[in-house]
Design goal:
CATH class: Alpha Beta
Strand content: 15-25%
Strand order of the largest sheet: 1-2-3-4-5-6-8-9
Number of strands: 9
Number of helices: 14
Bound molecules: (3S,4R)-3-hydroxy-2-oxopiperidin-4-yl beta-D-xylopyranoside
Shape: globular
CATH topology: TIM Barrel
Distance between the termini: 33 Å
Number of domains: 1
Order of helices and strands: HEHHEHHEHHEHHEHEEHEHEHH
Oligomer: single chain
Largest sheet: 8 strands, parallel, barrel
């Protein structure tokens, strides 16, 4: 197997900016960020600004971060995030308007068929209206598919579906377009990138729902593929059926974004060198296939350095060793994954 450059290798400068490489191809590169990381580690802030051209607030724009009581909103942290980004020439991905998680405690118990649509559209008007004109894109709906729900349309069983009905995606996109005419309106979704039965079912469900919405003139401009990848699924990532799916999205006029990329390493060997090589190979294979599709416009990872990764809590290693899912290590040094991402950006065809 090809060896990716190791930290400290002299053959390539270690700090070549990923945004610079992406920019040469008409792409954006970025990561999620939480303001507390910058406070805890100024080195991380420096790394972030050196590498990124776009940022997603990891928590600050979620409903539960903005509002704890009905109708009462506090935008202070989200505004601070946007100011930090605009001052530093970073674009901002708004994340996220309608999701079944990160809801304030009052929302789900109160939702019913009589008030659901109003509560949803009020929230969207308020939040998207607050940031109108300032964001690159909005994740209008997040993680709405679940083939496990056994519904013919593949929609996940959530309080939104139950209270608003199956056309709640349409409602959300129309409300977002009315509140912010500028941000690209995106449907962000998990597991579409995985070419197994579950992933294929999700792809089919998305295309069918998308066709229905586009026929009705729903203002949807992009698809976000989260891409929380698992190293052990390498064989079902980045294959021909995945590339064909990206083509089907592109033919429907969708811009495509990789929105939350990381590689879970919990099933890999303990040895950090071997683990980093395997993680790097997944990044390279997945991104090389992804970037062949010209409708792909941005690559956004869910964190830049292993010190600040949600995978530590979400998918920890059974042996208790620190996880290594991101391109930079816990001391902000580039790992094999960094060079693998850089290589896939270098070999990507330019966007038009
Ligand atoms: C995660 C954050 O990283 C965590 O800090 C938070 O506790 C939970 O949410 N899909 C998404 C993201 O769309 O918003 C999630 O982020 C990860 C899964």
């Amino acid at each position: 197997m090809a060896q990716w450059f190791q930290p400290g290798a002299k053959a390539q400068p270690a700090t070549r900016s990923l945004q610079q490489l992406a920019g040469q191809k008409g792409l954006l590169f970025g990561s999620c960020l939480a303001l507390k990381y910058c406070v805890q580690a100024p080195e991380y802030q420096q790394l972030f600004l050196a590498q990124c051209g776009i940022a997603t607030p990891e928590v600050h724009m979620k409903w539960s971060s903005l509002s704890t009581q009905p109708g009462v909103y506090d935008f202070a942290n989200a505004d601070r995030f946007v100011t930090f980004c605009t001052t530093n020439q970073l674009q901002v991905r708004g994340h996220t308007l309608i999701w079944h998680e990160a809801l304030p405690a009052w929302v789900a118990p109160q939702l019913n068929a009589g008030n659901g649509r109003m509560i949803m559209t009020d929230h969207i008007a308020r939040v998207a209206g607050h940031f109108a004109g300032k964001l690159y894109s909005w994740d209008v709906v997040n993680e709405v598919l679940d083939p496990g729900s056994q519904r013919p349309d593949g929609l996940r069983d959530t309080p939104w579906l139950r209270s608003c009905g199956a056309d709640y995606l349409e409602l959300a996109f129309r409300a977002a377009a009315a509140a912010d005419a500028r941000a690209l309106l995106v449907w962000n979704e998990t597991y579409l990138e995985v070419s197994n039965g579950f992933g294929q079912n999700k792809r089919a469900a998305m295309l069918a729902l998308l066709d229905r919405m586009l026929a009705r003139g729903v203002p949807i401009q992009g698809i976000g593929l989260e891409a929380h990848l698992r190293a052990e699924q390498a064989a079902v990532l980045g294959d021909a059926s995945y590339e064909a799916f990206l083509g089907q999205l592109a033919r429907r006029g969708m811009k495509i974004f990789i929105t939350e990329l990381d590689v879970q390493d919990l099933t890999l060997p303990a040895d950090p060198g071997a683990r980093d090589q395997a993680v790097a190979a997944v990044y390279n294979r997945f991104l090389t296939a992804t970037l062949r599709q010209p409708a792909v416009r941005a690559i956004v990872t869910w964190g830049l350095a292993d010190r600040f990764s949600w995978i530590a809590g979400y998918r920890p290693r059974p042996d208790g060793l620190p996880v290594r899912p991101l391109p930079f290590d816990a001391n902000y040094q580039p790992k094999a994954a960094y060079y693998a991402i850089a290589e896939s950006l270098r070999s990507a065809p330019p966007r038009g």
